[in-house]
Amino acid sequence: MRRSWRIAVLPGDGIGSEVVGATLPLLRHASQMAGLDLNWDMLPWPSTAWHEDNGQMMPDDALAQLSQYDAMLMGALGDPGPTSNPNRYLLSDGVSLSPLLTLRKGFDLWACERPAQLLEGAHQYLADDRARDVDMLVIRENSEGEYVNQGGRLHRGTPRETATQLEVFTRAATERLLRHAFESAQRRAAERKEKGQTRHFKRLDGSHATSQVCLITKRNALPEWGELYTEVFEQLSQRYPDVAIHHELIDAACMKFVQAPWQFDVVAASNLQGDILTDLAAILSGGMGVAPSCNLKPDDRSVPPLFEPTHGSAPDIAGQHLADPTAMILTAAMMLDWMGVEDPAASDAAEHLRRATEASLKARNEGSTLTGTDNISQHIEHFLAQR
Amino acid sequence: MRRSWRIAVLPGDGIGSEVVGATLPLLRHASQMAGLDLNWDMLPWPSTAWHEDNGQMMPDDALAQLSQYDAMLMGALGDPGPTSNPNRYLLSDGVSLSPLLTLRKGFDLWACERPAQLLEGAHQYLADDRARDVDMLVIRENSEGEYVNQGGRLHRGTPRETATQLEVFTRAATERLLRHAFESAQRRAAERKEKGQTRHFKRLDGSHATSQVCLITKRNALPEWGELYTEVFEQLSQRYPDVAIHHELIDAACMKFVQAPWQFDVVAASNLQGDILTDLAAILSGGMGVAPSCNLKPDDRSVPPLFEPTHGSAPDIAGQHLADPTAMILTAAMMLDWMGVEDPAASDAAEHLRRATEASLKARNEGSTLTGTDNISQHIEHFLAQR
Ligand SMILES: CC(C)[C@H](C(=O)O)[C@@H](O)C(=O)O
Ligand SMILES: CC(C)[C@H](C(=O)O)[C@@H](O)C(=O)O
């Protein structure tokens, strides 16, 4: 059903505003081509506020304002602090990131999804050519776990100083995460079937399934939540007999993401372990220059999801218009995909944007040495205009 | 100074006893060639005890017995549990690993070191040929942090279940870890200089250093210990002005281990983050089949270090003599290196063992399709005999 969409655009810091600037005209163009009714407002809330102003990074009513929108499209957050600090790239990067966690927590965007698929023309880091077949979805728990920010420092600065940080995992959050992982596996298998494709995942009893969920824990060293995850996983799996189950310890999983990533389908992980695996997944997709990501509340479409490239604000190259906008453009396409569940025009727009980006990537890979945020964006525009 | 050495050999579980069996004759031979006075006792304490016996995996006086030795050489620990459990590979692997943590904690082996260097003939996973230049040392905190095993499960099995796990970091352990990292960087630069090699690491002010320590944290999401690590790092760095300093967040570090690992020198990380990075470092060295590791107390040579391959007990192939013993043989060479600080004969033996292993790897890579634990060991023996 066609409808109208309102999105909040948050350019953020550093290269964020550059890649957003390069993306919006393409998003506009692709939407017009598809007849998609898409509107946006720019919300310029850079985190430079924390050192230039009163330390506040978003207005007090930020969440209320943002909840008026259907989705959020963000460039990048992260500012290394005042330029007067010579070690600013090295020794400070924490302070200005909190808005990201505020948005995730404020809207209970409990899942972070990052697909890994090597687009034609994207850089292949692995020597084995099966790296071209990588096709996985990493689903990260985004609301609790290692990121509850409960901790402190005792006897600060003294030889007996002790810092603590608590990890908190609930069965409720574990269940919704893993249920979503199983459902995503089923959906992916159905999509493959529609395209006439199948994949086979071996079960322990020798039989095969057409999709798989791999659970990640470090239950041999962090047993409490590792066993909770394992128990919930085993229980839920009985409701999804068509999906094969698998488990990897986080250290082995990182290794296997480099050794044989084509073996994975859906991967479900905790907040920190998912953070690590999604960065590795980005590399498998061709690097930070092309890796989109999404924070969402899968069980409630009325809550605006937050779409952002996996890359950060890259303060070292900010202001020079050197950043590759491809990841941001693919992030916009991911947002269109999400809208496409309700509105076929959005799916069409996503298709236009993604195909043009792929054509550009392929052409760039075949010899053109195109660099520069705006040059790349114009290159993609060229392919969009041809569609 | 020549002296006599006593080591405790702990074959452990699964492929552990197979690779140990394949390594000891070579260790004997190399020692004899070098005139090294080396003796060992076999301590067969497999963790199968936990399901076959009373759940106890080592005798009560294990630590007392082991403290009589100069070093420990372990195959692998980890048993998937009773064969009667059909999901044993999938859903249980925690229980039997505790002896490893018991040994690390019991002897306060607070550093775990895993070098990454791609031996000639070892498998290159990365497409970029600079992967051959990788030369780093990952030093992992091995005594606290995420692995303090303080946690619990509240309202177990109910919808409101909550699992917690505490992370505890002390300034004392952080200081000894990072001091050791800086000293290791200096030692590595001196060793390079001796061989007529230099590496250059850029500082923020544009100048260059001949070695570098890269600190790993996740201080933007786990600020308490991340800031403690950063403060201690900054303070200590002033005492090592010849060493360049660098910082990476764990997610970015994993990415860079795949994108450009040749840029790293010494990498210092917490227990869990180090666990992850050392597994990736193993891949950079050519995979689990060739990756040695060591747990030690760098400030006290009277405490026996624990040498073990990075790989686990691989229950899926255990009993079939399929495992590559190379990692175990290189672990034995790492042990000889450690002895070599006091006893030149041990350095000679390490040299023999390592060169023969490299020659075999190279020959195997050039076309021979040798497999099987004992075949590979005999192949290496052949090159040892030629020296
Ligand atoms: C910026 C940081 C707090 C964040 C995270 O760890 O979640 C980032 O790495 C990400 O993956 O989105
Ligand atoms: C077996 C496990 C507890 C251990 C660890 O995490 O330390 C292993 O992965 C390792 O790296 O030695």
UniProtKB/TrEMBL annotation, chains A, B:
Its cofactor is Mn(2+); Mg(2+). One of its GO terms (molecular function) is metal ion binding. Residues 6-380 form the Isopropylmalate dehydrogenase-like domain. Keywords: Manganese, Metal-binding, NAD, Oxidoreductase. InterPro entries: ICDH/IPMDH, IsoPropMal-DH-like_dom. The keyword RNA-binding does not apply. It comes from the Bacteria. This is 3-isopropylmalate dehydrogenase. It comes from Terasakiispira papahanaumokuakeensis.
